[in-house]
Design brief:
The complex is a heterodimer of chains A (496) and B (633). By secondary structure, chain A is mainly alpha-helical. Chain A has a two-stranded antiparallel sheet. In chain A, helix 7 packs antiparallel against helix 9. In chain A, 66% of the residues are buried. A two-stranded antiparallel ribbon of chain B has the order 1-2. Among the domains of chain B are: 279 residues, no CATH class; 75 residues. In chain B, helix 8 packs parallel to helix 13 and helix 16 packs antiparallel against helix 18. Chain B has 633 residues and is mainly α. Chain B is built from 24 helices and 2 strands. The chains are: A mainly alpha (496), B mainly alpha (633).
Chain lengths: 496, 633
């Protein structure tokens, strides 16, 4: 069964190759079938080996025992192994990746954005999936870095090939900015690997006797690299451009899972490998995270472009996730994990809907939109649902991550953390303010032009799972949090 | 039995979610939507009644929901008899509203989502009332906020509706910032969010006060307490039955109920109680004074709600949660009655403005008598419901002025004096409302002739030629609600009810003389002013103070200037900095790199002679360096 870890990477890779060889429409269908198979495999992967879904109260294990792992020697001279594993931290993200890729491929069957053939786009999405899944599954630092880089070029091609009018500039900015982050990551990886003599993540857990200075240096490098990816204010400016120009499926994957590689990396590698460095830098990280929440929300309040606004809202939401991580408590990191998944689901849905609105009205400018609840009540209802989920309504998925990031900050205690908690909570109110402004602009008022009220079957197919998940994760957060307690306590254990 | 308690909120919530899936439109869908809405409220009502009969103690059950770190969040219900009485009020009002809405929105094409949202609203309130866990309570609390947003913004033809809806949600959400932080503090201190654990835990004194003050911020938002009351009068943009729902049994009652639920903690913190008392007194007077000068029928009622909620929080502050809850119940009855009756008036005359009404008594006898009962109860006229509950509040406040309660004595004095003044003012504006709307000649055709604007009716109706009582489906809920509005106060004599609320026995001694005197003064002054100048609004006697009161002491403008505008300006500034400085640095780096590259590229593209010179210079330099290093080595 552990070979499944390799199969789950092979399937989309092969699928991408086949898709590229087939004629256009058949290729898109093949890609969707591949994505569906991969999604099923990810679900099987994510079933905890013990099968005890609801009995997840922590035991006192201090080591990280993944649910499944496969470890093949790869480059012995460099101590680099092909080590893949899945545990409670990565499992929800793996499933999310499988799901969103499937939905995006299915969406591509019905609608291909202008700019190139749909077959190539679908193949690129599958290559992207290989990279993302690999990043989440890698249990070796070097391997992690490789997969992290694999995602870069397909995403660049998706934006540059199928994007909006200013796609080339946006794609270039995206790739150069994140490459800058990757260079820092590479430096960090080699700092750790040369100091520790191994690249294996389970061996490196808790720092493995890395000196204090090494940890500080390595964590700084890691944090900067992941902060670019996540993105953390003030390293976020590639994101709005990339989102505004990217095609709908590109935006969905970018916001839905690509950003999560940053926060996941910060938990798994930043906190896991260099805990002293994390503890040392946590206050700075938390201050920046809260700054991101407030600044992201304030910018959204004055934003005039639909997709740009949602992109900036991601900055705010990821701020909550990073605040959760920065508390370095089990509560906080768990909040970060569910916040991660919830953001992927909800913002994925928001980008799908924003894309649908833009396709129908041919404009993303808020001044040109309006009256959606008159012209297309269903679409307006879905958009309203997504916006309300995104502003963190209790009972829907977005609530847990944001509320418990605040709770975790309160839990840390002390004037700094209490202040941060309060400011973050105010950021929550600001989030409500800009989403209500957005709804008022888009759904209320007079409609500038009539549009087709119907929603195509392909669109329902792509959106319905996300709507259901947003509700389901809100009601049963254990779906994500099951099995996270042990690995997180193993990671944060080193701090005590 | 605990399953039944859990079903109270679950059934309306579930039916509401199903109802949201219905596409708006044709007749059969409409019927289905109405059936779903009415069934949800009726089932919840039936469940409540069954529980009231069957349960003789607190019904509680709990199961783990999710565990984050060491914090335990439970899915738990807990319903004592007092909570069940609140459930009863909620479900009765909700059922009345659902039935009434069938008639009131009979030609609204978006009726289906409306009915579903009312169901969700009801379910959310029931969740707040029956929840045994703070996080679960927060779920109901916020879902209610969203439903109020959706329902207030329901009317597509009112230009002010979307703004009012956004305001309602945002102002309450600002309060909820405090609410969430307060819950976080309490939950962290008790290591659990279950209310039973939170009440039982020994909290640090400073932490407890901080947490309670933060929770009071949320309570102020939801229960429209100063300074977060500004959303409530604007919320009148919603359809009238929604006003009944928000004002009577749900939304605004939620804040009072939460303080009631957490009262053992509040009793330990005089600072929190004093804060509550002062805001209660301010709110009470602010609401009552603003109600005197409104020309819009619904706004008079809205401001009266602000004022009456002040009585409830005042009662809580002076240490009598029982009186607060009793007033909550009677208020639910008479305020729901008043709003539904107001809807009937608006339905009939096509305007909200008192200046366009008058003389409706003969044309609409049922509505008129409903108003008499409702306003009498509001003003505290014996033996109507409001008299008994308000008397309880006044007695509790007077009692607290003698000391011995956790609240400071000065706060009790403030509350007591404000409550007495409130009696006078309430009597005054209730009388004015009744006289202006139902007595005297009709002013339907104003001084400027018949071509006045119909722009404020909140559902699509043609203005009928003659005012008349509402159709049956709207009349029955009215008639049913007159019963508790008139008689609920007598429940204070029923021992079962009294022990459930831990209410004192009503004592009709000399203590009621002062409020009675004030009541008569208020009614008399209003009547005399109305009588003295026929056809003139009694409020004109206020002279230059009138615009101040009519505009709610201009607190909207203050809020706009102190909060909204600075935030907007800050947002603009931050956006500018983000684009010019943060992104500017990034773009600048790119541009600088390109520029440098171009420069170096240009430097390498020179003609042969200069290139040859450069090569020789380079060789010379390297040679010199090598020589120096060689010499030193």
């Amino acid at each position: 069964m552990n070979a499944l870890l390799i199969v789950v990477l092979m399937v989309p890779a092969l699928g991408a190759a086949i898709t590229a060889l087939l004629p256009d429409r058949a290729g898109r269908v093949a890609a969707t079938v591949t994505a569906a198979i991969t999604f099923m495999l990810t679900v099987v992967l994510a079933l905890p080996r013990t099968g005890a879904w609801f009995a997840y109260v922590g035991t006192d294990r201090e080591s990280l025992v993944p649910w499944r792992e496969v470890n093949v020697s790869w480059i012995p001279s460099l101590e680099v192994d092909f080590h893949l594993a899945v545990d409670g931290i990565s499992a929800p993200l793996v499933v999310l990746t499988g799901l969103l890729t499937l939905l995006c491929c299915a969406y591509t069957i019905g609608k291909v954005p202008e700019g190139g053939s749909g077959r190539t786009l679908a193949a690129l999405l599958l290559v992207l999936e290989v990279g993302i899944l690999g990043t989440f599954l890698a249990f070796d630092l070097v391997l992690f870095f490789l997969f992290f880089e694999v995602t870069l070029l397909p995403m660049y091609a998706v934006i540059a090939g199928w994007g909006g009018p200013d796609k080339r500039r946006a794609a270039r900015k995206f790739v150069l900015y994140t490459l800058f982050g990757s260079v820092l990551l590479l430096l960090g990886v080699f700092t750790v690997v040369t100091a520790a003599g191994t690249a294996d993540l389970s061996a490196l857990l808790g720092g493995l006797g890395l000196s204090r200075t090494t940890q500080y240096v390595a964590f700084t490098l890691f944090a900067l690299a992941f902060a670019v990816k996540a993105p953390l204010w003030p390293l976020h400016t590639w994101l709005p451009d990339a989102h505004t120009e990217a095609p709908t499926v590109g935006s969905v994957l970018l916001a839905g899972v690509l950003l999560k590689m940053g926060t996941y990396g910060l938990i798994r590698i930043g906190v896991g490998v260099t805990p002293s460095g994390a503890a040392w830098a946590a206050p700075v990280l938390a201050v920046l995270a809260v700054a991101a929440i407030v600044i992201g929300s304030l910018v959204c309040l004055r934003q005039t472009e639909l997709k740009r606004l949602i992109a900036y809202s991601s900055v705010g939401h990821m701020g909550f996730v990073l605040l959760g991580i920065a508390t370095l408590t089990i509560t906080g990191v768990q909040a970060a994990l569910i916040g991660n998944v919830a953001h992927g689901v909800i913002t994925g849905l928001l980008f799908f809907l924003a894309g649908a609105i833009k396709d129908r009205t041919h404009s993303g400018d808020l001044a040109d939109l309006g009256g959606l609840r008159e012209t297309s009540p269903r679409l307006a209802g879905l958009f309203g649902f997504a916006a309300i989920a995104s502003l963190g309504l209790p009972g829907l998925a977005g609530f847990w991550g944001e509320a418990f990031a605040v709770v975790a900050a309160v839990q840390r205690g002390g004037p700094l953390w209490i202040t941060l908690a309060a400011v973050a909570a105010v950021g929550g109110a600001l989030t409500a303010a800009y989403f209500l402004r957005l709804l008022r602009r888009v759904t209320h008022g007079a409609a500038p032009a009539p549009l087709s009220p119907g929603i195509a079957r392909g669109e329902w197919l792509a959106w319905a799972p996300l709507v259901l998940l947003a509700l389901l994760l809100g009601l049963v957060p254990s779906l994500v949090l099951v099995g996270t307690h042990d690995p997180i306590s193993a990671i944060t254990e080193a701090l005590r | 039995m605990s399953y039944l308690v859990a079903a109270l909120p679950a059934v309306p919530l579930l039916l509401g979610l199903v109802g949201l899936l219905l596409s708006p439109g044709d007749k059969p869908r409409r019927r289905l939507a109405a059936a779903l809405g009415v069934t949800g409220a009726a089932l919840a009502l039936g469940g409540t009644v069954a529980l009231l009969i069957l349960a003789d103690d607190v019904v509680a059950a709990s199961t783990s929901w999710v565990r984050l770190g060491e914090l335990n969040v439970t899915l738990s219900v807990s319903a004592g008899v007092a909570a069940l009485y609140v459930c009863l009020a909620v479900t009765v009002v909700a059922l009345a509203v659902q039935l009434y809405s069938i008639g009131y929105l009979h030609d609204d094409p978006r009726y289906a989502p409306y009915a579903a949202q009312v169901s969700l609203f009801t379910g959310a309130m029931l969740l707040v009332v029956t929840s045994g866990d703070l996080i679960l309570l927060l779920v109901g609390w916020e879902v209610m906020g969203v439903c109020s947003y959706l329902l207030i913004g329901h009317d597509r033809r009112l230009p002010e509706a979307p703004a009012a809806a956004v305001k309602a949600f945002l102002v309450t959400r600002v309060g909820d910032v405090g609410f969430l932080l307060g819950i976080a503090l309490l939950g962290w201190s008790a290591r659990s969010f279950a209310i039973a654990d939170v009440l039982a835990a020994g909290h640090d004194k400073g932490l407890l006060t901080a947490a309670l003050l933060l929770i009071l911020a949320g309570v102020a938002g939801k229960s429209a307490q100063f300074p977060l009351h500004t959303w409530l009068p604007d919320a009148m943009a919603g359809p009238t039955p929604i006003s009944a729902l928000i004002h009577a049994a749900t939304m605004v009652a939620a804040g009072v109920y939460v303080v009631f639920r957490l009262y053992p903690l509040f009793a330990k913190s005089p600072v929190a109680l004093a804060t509550l008392g002062v805001t209660a007194a301010v709110t009470l007077l602010l609401g009552a004074l603003s109600a005197t000068a409104q020309d819009d029928l619904k706004r008079v009622l809205a401001w009266s709600t602000v004022s009456q909620i002040g009585y409830m929080t005042g009662a809580l502050a002076v240490g009598s949660p029982a009186a607060a809850l009793f007033h909550l119940l009677t208020h639910a009855a008479f305020k729901a009655l008043l709003f539904l009756a107001a809807g009937a008036v608006i339905h009939a005359v096509g305007t909200n403005y008192l200046s366009r009404m008058g003389g409706l008594r003969r044309a609409m006898p049922v509505t008129f008598w409903s108003f008499v009962v409702g306003l009498g109860a509001l003003a505290g006229l014996p033996p109507l419901a409001g008299f008994w509950s308000k008397e309880n509040v006044l007695v509790a406040a007077a009692h607290a002025t003698e000391g011995g309660e956790p609240v400071p004595v000065w706060t009790a004095w403030v509350v007591w004096v404000a409550a007495l003044a409130g009696v006078l003012i309430t009597a005054w504006y209730s009388t004015r409302l009744l006289l202006r709307a139902f007595f005297g000649p009709s002013r339907a055709y104003g001084p400027d002739g018949p071509d006045w604007e119909v722009g404020f009716d909140d559902a699509r109706y043609d203005r009928p030629g003659l005012p008349h009582d509402p159709p049956r489906v709207m009349r029955w809920p009215l008639l049913v609600l007159t019963v508790p509005a008139a008689l609920l106060g007598l429940a204070a004599f029923a021992p079962g009810f009294r022990t459930a609320l831990e209410l004192d026995q009503p004592h009709l001694d000399v203590a009621i003389a002062l409020p009675m005197l004030l009541l008569v003064t208020g009614v008399g002054t209003a009547w005399w002013l109305w009588r003295a100048v026929p056809g003139a609004d009694p409020v004109l006697a206020l002279g230059r103070v009138r615009p101040l009161l009519a505009n709610g002491f201009y607190l909207d403008a203050v809020q706009h200037r102190l909060v909204v505008r600075p935030v907007r300006a800050l947002a603009g500034l931050v956006k500018l900095i983000d684009e010019r400085v943060v992104d500017g640095a990034v773009e600048g780096t790119g541009k600088a790199a390109t520029g440098l590259g171009t420069l170096l590229g240009a430097a390498h593209r020179t003609a042969l002679p200069r290139a040859a010179v450069a090569v020789f210079t380079g060789a010379l330099l390297l040679g010199v360096v090598a020589a120096i290093y060689g010499a030193s080595a």
